[in-house]
Amino acid sequence: MSYMAFATLMQDPGADMAEAKDLAERKYGEQGSSRTGVSIALTGQGAGAITVTSMWDSTDDCFAGRAAIFGDTEVQAYIAANNQVGVQFGLSRVRNEVGNCEGAYAVAAVATATDHSDEAVAEVSQHIERIFLSQGINGARMVQMIAAGENTGSYVNLFYCDSVDSYFAASQAAWADSGFTSASQRIGASIVDRLISRML
Question: Which residue in 194, 166, 183, 168 sits closest to 127, CA to CA?
Fold first, then answer.
């Protein structure tokens, strides 16, 4: 089992984002994050905000790693120099991944469901792999928020792509597919939000 953490931040618009990405990847990697990503929100109330995502083997590893990172003098210097402020932090459990979860963009489809079984996750994931990946999506990761304020319990389907148009084409194809729509209805799935970010 693995966990994905989302740390959303605001900082000076002129901050060196290449430096931010390098710093995050190095420091989180040193503490055991198996994958660290940095993105800028392009849509939603938080447009312009930065999100650092990290992958951990356990929640204890995540919190211990974050404590060490924010106690690091190099990190503290970057935070002070760029007036960086934490906006929110959320923790999720990874339920499934298909394809290559890398790309120029990440589209987060936030959803609720009434069936949380492994069987439901597997069925939806099969449809995502069948429909979305054939439409140009590189990969998709399904996570369930386990400690994220009002979003706790919801799902986030993260679609990684090199063209946002390819995501919308894939989404249109999915909602026109009887297998996908019947599965969505059966598990009580409902999309409640959609956010687009540019990966650094």
Answer: 183
Q: What is the pTM of this model?
A: 0.95
**Span 6-21, mean pLDDT?**
95
Domain boundary among 91, 121, 136: 91
Domain end residue (candidates: 57, 91, 125): 91
Cβ atoms of residues 98 and 139 within 8 Å: yes
CB 35 within 8 A of CB 54: yes
Residue pair 6/50 in contact (Cβ under 8 Å)? The answer is: no
Residues 40-55, mean pLDDT to the nearest whole number:
96
- Nearest CA to 3 out of 69, 103, 95 is that of 95
192 class by beta-carbon count within 10 Å (0-12 exposed, 13-18 middle, 19+ buried)? exposed
